[in-house]
Specification:
With about 270 residues, the chain is α/β, with parallel strands linked by helices. The structure holds beta-D-glucopyranose.
């Protein structure tokens, strides 16, 4: 049996039916956690992830909710608590892009991105933290009373023309995460972010699906490869486990060095 630092803990991962969320859900389960697989539109994909989790020996539960909708978020957590009694780990993963040149960007595109990427994090975190505080410390299981992990992006620090709504949402995630971490640290709830770079998932398919696009993308990645959901899954396990117990309010960039201004590698 592999190293299972999350044994005896329950987790909820938003947007876990595909992409990074699916990778994170499977990694948390492999590390011993029971995992709620939240999805919005594809129950079959969510059930497939649950089947893999169960095959690995922990519990899985697919729960539908649009995380930008308060009533749906509350109903989802009600079901999780009814089934498992608590939520030890929240991974605020669900996110989307609605790209447009700035002067063409509609209010609907702006609102959709902010609502899912930022307001969804607020709604899910608020309920999860209430549940963590209600259950209280369980030192036999984890040094922290609860762990919240926010899926940010390299675009919480790298500006992104043509994606102003998305970059604004991720800049918002940065101070959301840090402020929440500051507020909750005395209650032993740790809040951190992961900042993925280019990870090979449906959200950025045009950036990797042709050899020409991939070659162009790799110019931005000093480490010379595109990332995989499992790369993010490993970081999430570490941030959820006591191995990172003294890590608070940080963004861990998992990006092959995309944040290193690669265009300056040959001088400036
Ligand atoms: C975006 C991807 C992009 C990556 C690197 C992510 O946050 O969702 O579309 O490939 O950042 O630019």
């Amino acid at each position: 049996m592999s190293y299972q630092p999350l044994k005896g803990q329950t987790a909820l991962v938003t947007g876990a039916s595909s992409g990074i969320g699916a990778g994170v859900a499977l990694a948390l389960a492999a590390a011993g956690a029971d995992v709620v697989v939240n999805y919005i539109a594809n129950p079959k994909a969510a059930e497939d992830i649950v089947a893999k989790i169960v095959a690995g020996g922990t519990r899985g539960l697919a729960l539908q909710a649009d995380i930008g909708d308060e009533a749906q978020v509350e109903a989802m957590f009600d079901k999780m608590i009814a089934a498992w009694g608590r939520c030890d780990i929240l991974v605020n993963n669900a996110g989307l892009q609605q790209d447009a040149a700035f002067t063409d960007m509609t209010l609907a595109q702006w609102n959709r991105v902010i609502n899912t990427n930022l307001t969804g994090m607020f709604l899910c975190s608020r309920r999860a933290v209430k549940e963590m505080l209600r259950v209280g410390p369980r030192p036999d299981v984890s040094a922290a009373t609860g762990k919240v992990i926010c899926m940010s992006s390299v675009h919480e620090i790298i500006p992104w023309a043509g994606h102003v709504n998305y970059a604004a949402s991720k800049g918002g995630v940065k101070l959301f995460m840090q402020s929440l971490s500051q507020e909750l640290a005395p209650q032993k709830i740790r809040v951190n972010s992961i900042g993925p770079g280019a990870i090979q998932t449906p959200i950025n398919r045009p950036a990797w699906e042709t050899p020409e696009a991939l070659e162009k993308l790799l110019e931005l990645i000093p480490y010379g490869r595109i990332g995989q959901p499992a790369d993010i899954g490993k970081a999430a396990v570490w941030l959820a486990s006591d191995d990172s117990d003294y890590v608070n309010g940080q963004t861990i960039f998992v990006c092959g060095g995309m944040t290193l201004y690669p265009e300056f590698a040959d001088g400036g």
